[in-house]
Amino acid sequence: MKPVLYIVIPCYNEEEVLPITAPEFLAKINELVKLDKIDDKSRVMFVNDGSKDKTWEIIKDLAKQDEHYIGITQSRNRGHQNAVLAGLMEAKELCDITISIDCDGQDDINAMNEMVDAYADGCEIVYGVRNKRDTDTFFKRFTAEGFYKLLNGMGAEVVFNHADYRLVSSRVLNEFANYKEVNLFLRGMFPLVGFKSTSVYYARNERIAGESHYPLKKMLSLAFDGITSLSVKPIHMITGTGIFVSFISLVLLVYSIVQHFLGNTDPGWSSIMVAVCFIGGIQLISLGVIGEYVGKTYMETKQRPRYIISERTYDKSEEK
User: Fold this and answer.
1) Spatial separation of the C-alpha atoms in residues 45 and 289, rounded to whole Å
2) How far is CA 32 from CA 2, 35, 40, in A?
3) What are residue 14's phi and psi, to 5 degrees?
4) Which helix (H) or strand (E) covers residue 16, if one does?
5) Sheet holding 5-11, edge to edge
6) How far is the C-alpha of 113 from the C-alpha of 29, rounded, in Å?
7) Residue 100: φ, ψ to 5°
8) Cα–Cα–Cα angle for 24, 30, 34, nearest 5°?
9) How many C-beta atoms surround the C-beta of residue 97 within 10 A?
10) What is the pTM of this model?
């Protein structure tokens, strides 16, 4: 029996790029159907993440043009990770496999053929991984690769150079639904679910139109969210730093007492200020990191909904 595939595409202010990439996604669905790899009930699902432009109007127009286009919209903007989650949770009861991919056309959609083949061979999760970053500037390449190395170094299990382009089976998604975190970092959470997985490699393209919604500031924020959501290693580092500083302070205290009795001490304003500023800086950084964990715990205990779907272009009961 051929699997039903839903391509889940988060969209935020994509009115420039959507008319270009939407036909490409539909063409890929039709190609896979003709190759007898997927069922004709497969769909292209757009997830509007509270866009301020005409993105949702375009999605609704596409849905009227072809039954393979469907869309959902969130009640407000909740961020890329929540938009992907909303699409996956919506699709898991309607299909056998999902492939999440960004709308900008940078990820090679031809890699979907390998992903579907890997699923047919028994893999429940297939990660889309960039094989090179030739199109990136040196700064972008350096910061992006450093991002993955930092995450792995801090204990967050992520696939190197993998973002959110992946195939996930409905079986995995049903188990993933038990993960109730409000602070989402999907690329680090799926490896925690387990099941048989593999990777397919592809060359990433330039963005077709519009502007990137992930500048350096958001990338750093995502990295910090990933670390603090999946690892307590920063807390352990603070503890280790505190022990080290305390040891150095104890050595300096003994040294100062010895020098005092030897009569070698002189008033030293600079040395005192350096020590105070150093210890003060360590304390503020430590409090900031601990505060991040406390804040995340606070948000988790509220158990607020991670997404709210306000409108669909289809009747969900008829899609099943």
Assistant:
1) 38
2) 11, 5, 9
3) -115, 30
4) none
5) 197-202, 125-130, 162-169, 97-100, 5-11, 43-48, 69-74, 309-312
6) 10
7) -90, 140
8) 140
9) 26
10) 0.73
24 neighbors 109 (Cβ within 8 angstroms): yes
202 has which bridge partners?
130
Cα 291-293-296 angle, rounded to 5 deg? 110
**How many whole angstroms separate alpha carbon 300 and alpha carbon 182?**
6
**Residue 121 structure tokens:** 């061979």
Write phi, then psi, for 109 (nearest 5 degrees): -70, -15
Residue 166: φ, ψ to 5°: -155, 155
Spans of all domains in the chain? 5-137+161-211, 233-302
What are the strands, taking DSSP E only, across the chain? 5-11, 43-48, 69-74, 97-100, 125-130, 162-169, 197-202, 309-312
Instruction: Give the pLDDT of residue 307.
Output: 84
**Which residues, given as ranges, of the chain have pLDDT below 70?**
133-156, 206-233, 235-236, 246, 249-250, 252-257, 259-261, 263-278, 281, 284, 295-296, 298-300, 302, 317-320
Residue among 161, 73, 168, 157 nearest 176 (CA) = 168
Question: Going by C-beta distance under 8 Å and a sequence separation of 6 or more, which residues neighbour residue 117?
Answer: 37
* Radius of gyration of the chain from its Cα atoms, rounded to whole angstroms: 25
The C-alpha atoms of residue 160 and residue 147 are separated, in whole angstroms, by: 9
Report how far residue 50's alpha carbon sits from residue 193's, in angstroms, rounded to the nearest whole number.
29
pLDDT tens readout for residues 19-49: 999 999 999 999 999 999 999 999 999 999 9
Q: Does domain 5-137+161-211 have CATH number 3.30.70.100?
A: no
Q: Which helix (H) or strand (E) holds 4?
A: none
- 297 is written with which tokens? 């715990």
∠ Cα 215 217 219 (to 5°): 70
d(CA 54, CA 220) in angstroms, rounded, equals 29
| Burial tier of 133 (Cβ tally within 10 Å: 0-12, 13-18, 19+) | middle
